[in-house]
């Protein structure tokens, strides 16, 4: 006769096998299981430990027990890059990308394309209330005098305070508030490059980064990137040894589209190497606050002792894309960035700056971020689980450690662009893989947005994509 803990373990195991409990789902707490099953706490813990030993669940510090995602076959290494010499490439993706992005905003399309969080996951009502309060209490913010400074000091204080969560605090004097992270990246590029220069980027790299390079007449130097540990510092060292590179534009924390996380040791090594070679690092940390682990990872900026790293971030992925508010911690390039900001757009809306400052100061902010991180992790796991079930055998997936995008590699050389054509006709939006490469690599890949709560419509869209992918011809 099975012991009590074995019976509970078998009951939970059956729920996992029948997908009543899905990968990523949190199990009831130990005390709740003990109460509901009329068992001792020690018996419940023994049952959970058995399931953990069997690889069916995992414990997460201060969070409880979760159903594990089945082991994935790792993504292919970036062999297409590593087997040949790396050369700068002229970027030409913007015209096509505009059409692909537009599909995601059509109401009849399933929005698996643009990497945006769903409205219902954002604190829109609280922000609207703050707009009313700030406009009433500080009418002077709408006057000309409010634009004499690029930054509202109330916001600067909050940005510095929040930076204490991830290493040495940012220096107030190096901050420039911007109209989004995109503007922050553009200002930094203008501050440290000239048309015709070469900029090192990850491969695959976020298509908007490539569009910025194209718009400014810059060339992309694609550096191989590991799907778990991020950009290869060894490859970057070789690529910059003899060739002039004006800057690096990188994402160390949860890159888009891979969701990978660079180890701290490599971040420090990268910061030291580029400082020695006097190559500025423009760091995009827009996903840094959407970590799945207990602690927010440090950006490269935290390991910079020479002011060589220009850290860019915004609230678009965590609070609201419509705020259009970001910032740069520009290090030794602060004066150059300020000039570019003044010439290109002037001061960022002071009302929005104060609204954001007051929300960041509230206890509601951290509660919201905790909830959002949990939702995004759950949605990524749910999407991963269904892709594994429904896409053709041999499909490989990224294993994001933060953010809310999923990178899918189709097997047998199947064409992601052909899949995109079929999906568009069926009312499903996503971004094909070659949009993440200046060289047109990754045609057998696609990126899926997991920023929306799970619905039957999304479920059916992913199943449809799987059937379409299975029907594609394979490479001969």
UniProtKB/TrEMBL annotation:
It holds the Pfam family Aminotran_1_2. It comes from the Bacteria. Keywords: Aminotransferase, DNA-binding, Pyridoxal phosphate, Transcription, Transcription regulation, Transferase. PROSITE patterns: HTH_GNTR. The keyword Ubl conjugation does not apply. SUPFAM superfamilies: PLP-dependent transferases, Winged helix' DNA-binding domain. PANTHER family: HTH-TYPE TRANSCRIPTIONAL REGULATORY PROTEIN GABR (PTHR46577), TRANSCRIPTIONAL REGULATORY PROTEIN (PTHR46577:SF2). The keyword DNA-binding applies. Residues 2-70 form the HTH gntR-type domain. The lineage of its organism: Bacteria, Pseudomonadati, Pseudomonadota, Betaproteobacteria, Burkholderiales. GO terms for molecular function: DNA binding; DNA-binding transcription factor activity; pyridoxal phosphate binding; transaminase activity. This is PLP-dependent aminotransferase family protein. In the C-terminal section; belongs to the class-I pyridoxal-phosphate-dependent aminotransferase family. InterPro entries: Aminotransferase_I/II_large, HTH_trans_reg/aminotransferase, PyrdxlP-dep_Trfase, PyrdxlP-dep_Trfase_major, PyrdxlP-dep_Trfase_small, Tscrpt_reg_HTH_GntR, WH-like_DNA-bd_sf, WH_DNA-bd_sf.
